[in-house]
Design goal:
Layout: H1 5-14, E1 18-20, E2 32-34, H2 36-55, E3 60-62, H3 72-76, H4 79-82, E4 84-89, E5 96-98, E6 107-111, E7 117-121, E8 149-152, E9 155-158, E10 168-171, H5 176-181, H6 183-190, E11 196-205, E12 220-230, E13 235-236, E14 239-240, H7 241-259, E15 267-271, E16 283-291, E17 294-305, H8 307-316, E18 322-324, E19 329-331, E20 334-341, H9 342-353, E21 354-359, E22 362-367, E23 378-382, H10 388-401, E24 407-409, H11 415-425, E25 429-433, H12 435-438, E26 439-440, E27 445-446, E28 450-455, E29 461-465, H13 469-476, H14 482-485, E30 491-492
Parallel strand pairs: 3-11, 23-24, 23-25
Antiparallel strand pairs: 1-2, 4-5, 4-8, 6-7, 9-10, 11-12, 12-20, 13-14, 15-16, 16-17, 17-20, 18-19, 21-22, 25-28, 26-27, 28-29, 29-30
The protein binds zinc ion (2 copies).
């Protein structure tokens, strides 16, 4: 079964993935805080993305630019003039709506046919008593709405101590522009040859009129963006290089989400219609995911042509070109932009990993995270917390493994309960230290120095020497499957 948004929101809060921002003050409309497990999951997503798309590739480099940029950047990029949504305001309750969404809301109606009784009527439907359609504010049902006005989605702020026009700047609404304005710095300092890409992961801000759906649409969010520059005069496999690389990136990004656990049936591509395309874009394809709210954009991959570099060249007066040695000419590269949201990716990975299963007549909730994404890799659990020697061995194992991975120790419940807790947060492996491990010194019995490893999905258990634990987890967390590794060790029947 697929998880509902309510289930994910509740699990996120209960188990420390995501909290509402400033909750003790009533929360903010659209900001969320990542808790102890959420930050691990989010860092893991960014880390594997960086490793797979930057570190592993000879044609990629990264940057980390500041959030506050020169305000002319946003003039050149078009954000200052065009990054707007139409909005309307209620003259009574001051509620603000996106003009193009106002008819999609349930509306409040004080019905004249029933002595002014108040009803909430489904979106787009007329009143069943008087037959009226909505004309007033859907929220209060009393106020008239203003005519639509364009509302810029950038957060405005002031650089320095004076609040005057000259000091106005903006929190970046996307990370992409820093790659364009640094194009020549990166090109010259790294001596790159086309095609090459520049990647960046970082925060962006959009003052959405109607944010919502948990971490799907928020005003502050994190992006992972790549600008991949190609020579528009080159041909690859008989096609223009920009078109060839656009398709390559669509395939690579899709494969990346599949590799880390999103199921095929929950992923699809959506080609933007011609009238949907930004005027400078040659082609844009979204990877859509079947979120609990329905099919929605997970990431977009756009062919932005030479628009951005040309704009910044025009506004800055600096040449942003590449010298094509072969043709002995300067060219403005085309750019393919794979742009993903970290928060959205996290929501998709979580929704896809969520399972409710029945185990021996009991319900278990399990997050089947890919081991590389799982916030905790191993939980070390003592079977008896009153036995000092067992606890000591368990603590030593935790400390030893924790030098390489996020590993926790937990002795706050009985073992069955501890397993369920780890399943619920997606920990792929549990290590249990028991009486057999340590023996009984008073009776002169030495232990076998072995511990039990339990795998999350199959719940199978094997007995492994403590001395081999680090090596075993290097394999299991490095890509070796449980099915391949487990037969090397004696099984434990639970
Ligand atoms: Zn109102
Ligand atoms: Zn009515």
């Amino acid at each position: 079964m697929n998880a509902t948004m309510d289930v994910l929101v509740s699990l996120s809060k209960r188990r420390g993935f995501v909290f509402q921002s400033s909750e003790i003050y009533g929360g903010t409309g659209s900001c969320w805080d990542y808790g102890p497990l959420g930050v691990e999951l989010k860092n893991n997503i960014k880390r594997v993305w960086w490793r797979d798309f930057v570190q592993a590739r000879a044609d990629m480099v990264g940057i980390d630019a500041s959030i506050l940029m020169h305000s002319t950047v946003w003039k050149a990029s078009g954000h200052l003039d065009h990054f707007t949504d139409p909005m309307v305001d209620c003259r009574e309750c001051k509620h603000r709506f996106r003009a193009d969404h106002v008819n999609d809301l349930p509306w409040t109606h004080h019905c004249p046919a029933t002595k002014g009784n108040k009803f909430t009527i489904p979106p787009g439907e007329p009143c069943g008593h008087c037959g009226q359609r909505r004309t007033l504010c859907p929220e209060c049902g009393k106020g008239e709405l203003t005519a639509p006005r364009q509302f810029n989605l950038m957060f405005k702020t002031f650089m320095g101590p004076v609040e005057e026009d000259a000091a106005v700047t903006y929190l970046r609404p996307e990370t992409a522009q820093a790659m364009f304005v640094n194009f020549d710095n990166v090109l010259q300092s790294m001596r790159l040859k086309l095609p090459f890409g520049v990647a960046q992961a970082g925060r962006s801000f959009r003052n959405e009129i109607t944010p919502g759906n948990f971490i799907f649409r928020t005003r502050e969010f994190e992006q992972m963006e790549i600008e991949y520059f190609v020579n528009p005069h080159d041909r690859v496999d008989g096609r223009p290089a920009d078109e060839y690389w656009h398709d390559r990136w669509i395939g690579d990004c899709m494969a990346w989400f599949q590799r880390y656990g999103l199921r095929d049936e929950n992923l699809r591509l959506r080609e933007h219609d011609k009238d949907e395309l930004a005027h400078y874009a040659k082609r844009t394809v979204d990877i859509e995911y079947k979120f609990p709210i329905g099919w929605s954009e997970l990431m977009g991959i756009a062919n932005r042509t030479d628009f951005d570099l040309k704009q910044h060249s025009k506004w800055s007066g600096k040449s942003l070109t590449y010298f094509d040695e072969e043709r002995k000419e300067h060219v403005v590269p085309y750019v393919v932009e794979p742009a993903a949201g970290v928060d959205r990716a996290l929501l998709a990975f979580m929704a896809d990993a969520y399972r409710e299963e029945e185990v021996r007549g009991e319900k278990r909730v399990v997050l089947r995270f890919h081991p590389e994404l799982a916030p905790l890799k191993v939980a070390v659990l003592p079977l008896l917390k009153k036995r000092e020697d067992i606890v000591r061995v368990a603590q030593t194992i935790r400390a030893d493994l924790a030098r390489q991975w996020r590993v926790v120790y937990d002795d706050t419940a009985a073992i069955g309960r501890l397993y369920r807790r780890q399943d619920e947060v997606g920990t792929p492996y549990c290590v249990t230290v028991d009486v057999q491990t340590v023996g009984d010194a008073e009776r002169g019995e030495t232990g076998d120095q072995r511990v039990t490893i339990r795998e999350r999905d199959s719940m199978e258990q094997i007995r492994v020497p403590v001395a081999e634990l680090a090596a075993v987890f290097r394999e299991l967390l490095g890509g070796v499957t449980w099915a391949d590794l487990a037969p090397r060790y004696p099984p434990v029947r639970s």
